[in-house]
From TrEMBL:
It comes from Kitasatospora indigofera. InterPro entries: CDO_1, RmlC-like_jellyroll, RmlC_Cupin_sf. This is Cysteine dioxygenase. Pfam families: CDO_I. Fe cation binds at H71, H73, H118. One of its GO terms (molecular function) is oxidoreductase activity, acting on single donors with incorporation of molecular oxygen, incorporation of two atoms of oxygen. The lineage of its organism: Bacteria, Bacillati, Actinomycetota, Actinomycetes, Kitasatosporales. Belongs to the cysteine dioxygenase family.
Length: 162
């Protein structure tokens, strides 16, 4: 009897560091994506650049004041890098620690596991452009409100909403 392990192997998610490498490499090749960037005043603009069975890559632009709000990634691992401009990331490392605020200037990146929750925002006076990779491809995202007792899930959205 033989066992075919290939299907299981194909479903193994990429690691956060592998996703980081994907977005960093892409950021160094602006001719691959710079001509696609749009800016939108109603909300962040985004476009999926790549989609495969094990991961996907998104290009996102951020005008001043635009933000995600606290959200997870539905169990996907992820990474992103700031290609242009500067963003700020808010996260809660643990319940007994306070809010952690990271400034993310151009060239910086973040990579995270399946349970990560953060809020990413453009608090500057100029636009920003980011590249994101997720594995497996995003299947849903939950949004959260930050309240006195911590993060409270308020809604869940699926691919039909993005
Ligand atoms: Fe995110």
């Amino acid at each position: 009897m033989s066992l075919d392990l290939a299907p299981d192997r194909a479903r193994t998610p990429l690691t956060p560091n592998a996703l980081r490498k994907i977005v960093r490499t892409l950021a160094e090749e602006p001719d691959q994506w710079i001509h696609k960037v749009r800016l939108a005043t109603d909300d962040r603009w985004y476009e999926r650049l790549e989609s495969s069975e094990d991961h996907e890559v998104w290009l996102i632009s951020w005008l001043p004041g635009q933000s995600t709000g606290f959200h997870d990634h539905g169990g996907s691992r992820g990474a992103f890098t700031v290609a242009l401009g500067e963003l700020e990331e808010l996260s809660l490392p643990s319940p007994d620690q306070g809010l952690l605020i990271r400034r993310l200037p151009a060239g910086s990146d973040r990579a995270f596991g399946p349970d990560y929750v953060h809020d990413v925002r453009n608090t500057t006076s100029g636009p920003a452009v980011t590249l994101h990779a997720y594995s497996p491809p995003l299947s849903e995202m939950s949004h959260y409100d930050l309240r006195a007792g911590g993060l409270v899930r308020t809604s869940v959205e699926g691919p039909e909403q993005w």
